[in-house]
Design goal:
- There is one protein chain.
- By secondary structure, the chain is α+β, with helices and mostly antiparallel strands.
- The protein has a single domain (about 1-145), classed as Gcn5-related N-acetyltransferase (GNAT) (Aminopeptidase, 3-Layer(aba) Sandwich), CATH 3.40.630.
- The chain is about 30% helix and about 40% strand.
- Strands 1-2-3-4-5-7-6 form a seven-stranded mixed beta sheet.
- Strand 3 (about 50-60) and strand 4 (about 60-70) form a beta hairpin.
- It starts with a strand and ends with a strand.
- About 30% of the residues are buried.
Length: about 140
């Protein structure tokens, strides 16, 4: 596994993973905007294949994990944890004191993953996510980086 800064050339491969793992995926514009804004965006590769990505936004002394994804055929083998710990290390090195994220209450596998990684619930954002019928809350989780 190797990690590299995400570039515009990576966006097609990132979009393919995002579309495979999210019911309401980020768009090309979302990723290009994140890159243009200078967010801490990274890809994970195995050989020449892009198998994961993450976008982290730094704000004062907190880092906000905006999106993370691992190719479905590469999940459940420690890659997501490796990517999460890599970006947590980047946040720590940048002086961030807390790592935040939102997750859907209906996404039980993600909730279990984040809890195993040391995240705890610190709040909720009402009607945060689009859903098939209306909106869905977001659970806000945090941990030290």
């Amino acid at each position: 596994m190797s990690f590299a800064p995400m570039t515009a050339d990576d966006v097609d491969a990132v979009l393919a993973i995002e579309a495979a793992v999210q019911e309401f995926p980020w768009t090309r514009g979302n990723f290009l905007d994140a890159l243009a804004a200078g967010y801490d965006a990274w890809v994970m590769r195995e050989g020449d294949r892009l198998v994961g990505f993450a976008v982290l936004m730094h704000a004062v002394d907190e880092a906000h994990l905006l999106v993370i994804g691992i190719a479905p055929d590469r999940q459940r083998a420690g890659r997501g944890r490796a990517l999460l710990e890599f970006i947590a290390g980047r946040a720590r090195a940048a002086g961030m004191t807390r790592l935040l994220l939102e997750v859907r209450p209906s996404n039980q596998p993600a909730l279990a993953f984040y809890r195993q990684a040391g995240f705890v619930e610190i709040g909720r954002r009402r009607a945060y996510y689009p859903a098939r019928e209306g909106r869905e809350d977001a659970i806000v989780m945090a941990r030290e980086p």
